[in-house]
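Hey team,

Sharing the PTS N-acetyl-D-glucosamine transporter run so nobody has to redo it. Sequence (558 residues) first:
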Amino acid sequence: MTTTFGSRLMAGLQKLGRSLMLPIAVLPVAGLLLRMGQPDLLDIAFIANAGNAIFSNLALIFAIGVAVGFADDDNGAAGLAGVIGYLVLTAVLETLNPDINMGVLSGIIIGSVAGLLYNRYKSIKLPDYLAFFGGRRFIPIVTGLSAVVLGGIFGLIWPPIQQGIDQLGQWLIDAGDLGLFVYGVLNRVLIVTGLHHVLNSFVWFVFGSYDGATGDLNRFFAGDPTAGSFMAGFFPVMMFGLPAAALAMYHTAARSRRAQVGGLLLSLALTAFLTGVTEPIEFSFMFLAPALYAMHAVLTGISMALMNMLDVKLGFTFSAGAFDYALSYGLSTNGWMMIPVGLCYFALYYGIFRWAIVRFDLPTPGREPEAATATVSHDPGERGPAFVTALGGATNLVSIGACTTRLRLVMQDDAAIDEPSLKALGARGVLHLRGGGLQVILGPIADAVADDIRAAVRDQGKTLTVPAATESDAALTEATLDDASRHAWLAALGGAENLRNVAAVATTRLRLELKDRGQMDDAALQGLGAAGIQEVGQGVVHLVMGRQAGAVANSLKA
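Structure output:
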């Protein structure tokens, strides 16, 4: 599996998208406290201030959450490093140029840096007289020093970047209906890759300013009467449109199987209506009917523009569900108009989906082959091992993560997974990404399932295991290369001093631990027979070698 810059960039963005969900998860309680404490409800100042404390420190919260999300093992040391880095960065910027306001972006950037530094240096060994500062204790130190450097750099380059971001955000706001339509369409289209979280972070937390609050979400809860346009249009789609799509799928299912799929579709519809979590419904037709999903994206864009035309301003802290609608209604402008618009969207979605499913015979739930709809119930202790088996075993898992609704995995071989078994376990969709990335869409249980998978992998001892050699492999495990080939391999790896450790794993792969990944010559390795190169992290690289992996490992160890 060869990795390219594009695949590495996509993997990084995937990890950022997952990491953003940890700090975003605290917003509902902040919004609840802030709203309940207002004069038109409980009129209790300390409750309102408790919620406002979270909104006022979002950048710091993002620094912590993103750092922990980026860390390979979600360790709290990365979160502490994020705090140190954020405090240092903001102090440096304030000294150099008080007019610089990076907002939540400062937390996202320094959190990413802290998490990446944690992954690289968490096991660092220092000289004996500095040993106390080694390992995880080194991470806050190196992050703080990095923040000083970043502060100096951003102090020079950020003013024009800040001006560009302000202009982009102002254009999107000033573009009115067109800007809202484009944003709504992109938001739904990017769900395929999970990168909509990155787009949302700019729109909800960066663009626009009101009394120090930035972003459509922050400004709405700060009382900005112009805020809420970039959230209001989601309510008719999520509360009415997609539940209507689920009803259409139920009515078009085979009569003999409606009872079988009814509970599933009802749970998906209620999840969308109450909480605004829509991905499980969307992935049930996204790949079966791409044109229908494109229509869904366009309808979302139209809803955004339509609500703006009607001067409807609504906000949410998590997503556009009934809970958030009730919470934000008192702060809304013309919030009541969402109901008639939503009812129209219910009829529109139901009609379009029912017509398309019947007209094109789409295999939506209850219409696909019988075996594909069956779901298997597992006790909590059995769910993790079942998923590990369906994902090709513990040796096939390199990285395990999750966001709100999907598992975000890195696989040794994503072709080794058993998709029917994953769907029987409740997966609504499976996405294969470049660089061995795999996403499994499960709905709100995704994070709990990720924990179960990690526990199952730990119970098996380790993530990667080496299969026992069979009798027919004996000659391969003892084979070596000639001297010329060995020297060519060492040169391609940056010299013997750059090679910390080497092992043949899973029969066909080399696992290399390098001091400096940058000294490895990928082109030369491919010329020597490496069919694929996979970055595992922290200087660890896997080479797909076929059956000569053992001979290469034996020679490099010599």
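The radius of gyration is 26 Å.

Ping me if you want the raw files.
A.
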